[in-house]
Amino acid sequence: MNTAIKTLVLLLIGGATTAAQAAAPGDEVIPVKKSTLVNLVDLLVQRGVLKPDEGQGLVRAAEQEAAETQAAQVKSNEAKAATSTAEDAGEPGNSAPKTGKTKHVGYVPEFVKKEIRDQVRAELKAEVLQDVKQDAKTEGWGIPAALPEWVAAIHPSFDMRVRFADEFYGKENAGGIANAGLDAAGNFFGPYNWLAINRLANSPQGGLQRQVSQNPNEAIVNNQIDRLRLRERFRLGFEANLSDGLKAGVRFATSNLNNPVSNDQTLGNTGQSYQFAIDRAYLRYDYLDERKTSWFSLYAGRIVNPFLSTDVVFDPDLSFEGVAGSVRLPFNRGTSKLAGYKAPNPTARFGINQGQQTPDSLFLTLGVFPLQDIDVSVNDKWLYAGQVGADWLVWHDSRLNLAASYYEFQNVNARRNPIGSHVYDWTAPQFVQKGNSMLAITDDQTLNGVCDDTVGCLFGLASRFKVFNATAMFDYAGFDPVHVLLTADYAKNLGYNQQKILTEFANGVVNYTDSRPRTTAYQIRADIGQVEVRHFGDWSVNLAYRYVQRDAVLDAFTDSIFHLGGTNAKGWVIGTQYGLSKYAWLNLRWLSTDAIDGPKYSIDTVNVDLNARF
């Protein structure tokens, strides 16, 4: 019971005990039996309004005051009787003259007053303290006025992750180091480390066959020996408000410098320092109207992923380099449901990016991103991207995101060197994981004076990549604070040209036995739990099925964990997150995957991540 109700009850009881004393002749007095008062006090004690000793005190006080009132009443009656006798005898009485109706002021016992004061003080203390803390945080109390304004404008962020990654390989996996990278029919399969092979392409040690025989541990990717690895990621960022709508940011992170889809450092480098790099450096401008509605955003530099997407196309750790802009057309402005909605962190659910976080709007996002700078500018590698979509609060906090995207990668596919030339060496990829179809840029038929390998020495991507991507997300909030997020993602590469591949490259695709188009990917996923794991006991679970054919997306930028990175994989993902405190949480994921094409290649991966942030 709150303070106001308890105070009223105490006043009523206090008033009841003095009602008889305060009453004057002619006043209406409602008699209350002792048993009724005792029952009322007992009820208040049972409900927790009064303590037992307070209840007993009220009863004793009532009994004492009732006795005193009764004695005073007897004395008053005797005096009245004496006065009446004197008047009857003609003698003047000593009573005061009548002046009309007498007014009385109710008496509140001192212990009741003390109880009220203590209760009010206890309950107001917490409320006042909370208000003071909020004012101090908002107004920046404790920050010396002598400090420059830019100090308060800078907002730091920090996160750290320690990962236990356990990898279990199928006992029937083909290829691999034990089989010299060959399948059961003697076909080259690998899985190969194309970056290591390309690194020695124009040297006496160049050639796939020579590398496999002389340096198999480097040239062939492990797919048979189980292993446990410990990794960590550390990121430190700063964002500054430069003026209205304009921000600048920078983020430092552990990095291996050569892998765009992972900031992890594998433990086991005792005696060596970790690599630490600038992961992001950007300017961002947001145009806001008088209602603080964002109509337009512009990004430039090394920026966050600006697209609504999943890890089927882009790994969560991937940063984009270039320029991107997003135009939004809001609707339902000024409605109560929109005013009370607080958008969550768009990447709170691992592997999902919910985009710009502008509910009830249509949006268009365009971006131009240089991927690799080549000496001759016409040969630079680029990504041109566009996305159109809708972000809609369909019911209370339940939210629907729809997006259709087109990603065109320019100059990323392999081109065969002319005889005696290295002119197209630049078409070899700067980074790959595994899965995409590969072609020999140089082999013994190019007669360039270095490569004598019949399979090839320098390799590149067989397909062009013009990827159409459709994404739908529905976040149901009917069980708030528990949400149910359903996600469907579909990707189709429109750039694969089988006829061109067979015409230009005599050996065709070298890591698969055929050159047929395999260009489709999709994922179905469900997340249940808190939107953000922010406190102890917060939780979230997810289940997903993913199917990614070998040339559906660029293997360099897709998820680095599913099938240990790359494409040509299908399988299940089960994950759970649990809050350990306000600043720490646990993320557990189990992934079971198989190769779609080629010899059998199965992997079960267990990741246990301990995360911290502020």
Description:
- With 614 residues, the protein is of the alpha+beta class.
- Helices cover 21% and strands 35% of the residues.
- The protein has eleven helices and 21 strands.
- The strands form three sheets. Strands 1-2-3-5-6-8-10-11-12-15-16-17-18-19-20-21 form a 16-stranded antiparallel β-barrel. Strands 7-9 form a two-stranded antiparallel ribbon. A two-stranded antiparallel ribbon has the order 13-14.
- It is elongated.
- 31% of the residues are buried.
Helix-strand layout with pairing:
Elements: H1 3-17, H2 19-22, H3 34-46, H4 52-88, H5 110-139, H6 149-153, E1 154-169, H7 194-199, H8 208-214, H9 216-219, E2 227-243, E3 246-254, E4 265-266, E5 276-288, E6 294-303, E7 309-310, E8 320-330, H10 336-339, E9 352-353, E10 361-372, E11 381-395, E12 398-410, E13 438-442, E14 458-461, E15 465-479, E16 482-493, H11 498-504, E17 520-529, E18 539-548, E19 569-579, E20 584-595, E21 602-613
Helix pairs in contact: 1-4, 1-5, 3-4
Main features:
614 residues, 16-stranded antiparallel barrel, 11 helices, 35% strand, two-stranded antiparallel ribbon, alpha+beta
TL;DR?
The protein is of the alpha+beta class. It contains eleven helices and 21 strands.
